[in-house]
Specification:
The chain has 202 residues and is mostly beta strands. It is 11% helix and 36% strand. It is built from 4 helices and 14 strands. The chain has a 7-stranded antiparallel β-sheet with strand order 3-2-6-9-10-5-4, covered by helices on one side. A 3-stranded antiparallel β-sheet has the order 1-13-14, with no helix packed on it. The chain has one domain (24-185): Electron Transport, Fmn-binding Protein, Chain A (Pnp Oxidase, Chain A), CATH 2.30.110. GO terms for molecular function: FMN binding; oxidoreductase activity, acting on the CH-NH group of donors, NAD or NADP as acceptor. This is Flavin reductase family protein. Residues 18-173 form the Flavin reductase like domain.
Length: 202
């Protein structure tokens, strides 16, 4: 089939998210200017550069108690910082709790039963037991076409690696099975990997 997004797809559910899979999940922790913690997952997320290390994620949609945005973006606008926590399979249920739309002063860490740890370089909480956490300094927020669509870019200025995830000098994803987002309400985990040598490797 072929369809023009502006005309609709004619299917029971929008297939767009299912076309871009699997997607890593940025479990973004922030706090507002009054110190209220927030934690929410975003799957339009990726790294954008090595030196200095940089990341991006996209925020779409709005909340009634925020000004045409979501808690995460509102908090980043207020503080300029955030932390991206890597989600492992064992944290699936806790992550799912944080997908719920709570009032802006509700602490999702507490709702999900997660231990909190402070970041070292920014004033922001992080998921204490996450396989990795990236402390981020926002560099730009870019509005996109459409209502309440934004891309947040940041430099990673501090990185936490859980000790058991570092094996033979490498961050080994097989030690924790990363959770990935598919389309609709579907998820997957990384449970096997393989290595390819590039043709120009010497």
């Amino acid at each position: 089939m072929f369809y023009l997004p502006k005309d609709g797809h004619g299917l029971p559910h929008n297939p767009f998210n299912a076309l871009i899979t699997p997607r890593p999940i940025a479990w973004v922790s922030t706090q507002d200017s009054d110190g209220h913690a927030n934690l929410a997952p975003y799957s339009f997320f990726n790294g954008t550069a090595y030196v200095p290390p940089q990341v991006m994620f996209a925020s779409t949609g709005v909340k009634a108690d925020q000004d045409n945005t979501k808690d995460t973006l509102a908090n980043i606008r207020a503080t300029g910082v955030f932390c991206i926590n890597v989600v492992e399979q064992a944290m699936t249920e806790a992550m799912n709790v944080t997908t719920e739309t709570f009032p802006k002063d509700v602490d999702e860490f507490a709702r999900a039963g997660l231990d909190v740890a402070p970041c070292k370089t920014i004033d922001c909480p992080r998921v204490a037991s996450a396989p990795a956490s990236l402390e981020c300094q926002m560099t730009q927020i870019i509005p996109l076409k459409g209502e309440a669509n934004y891309v947040i870019h940041a430099e990673v200025i501090g990185i936490h690696l859980r000790d058991d995830c570092v094996v033979d000098g490498k961050f080994d994803v097989s030690t924790f099975r990363p959770l990935a987002r598919l389309g609709y309400r579907d998820y997957s985990v990384v449970d096997n990997t393989f290595t390819l040598e590039r043709p120009d490797d010497t």
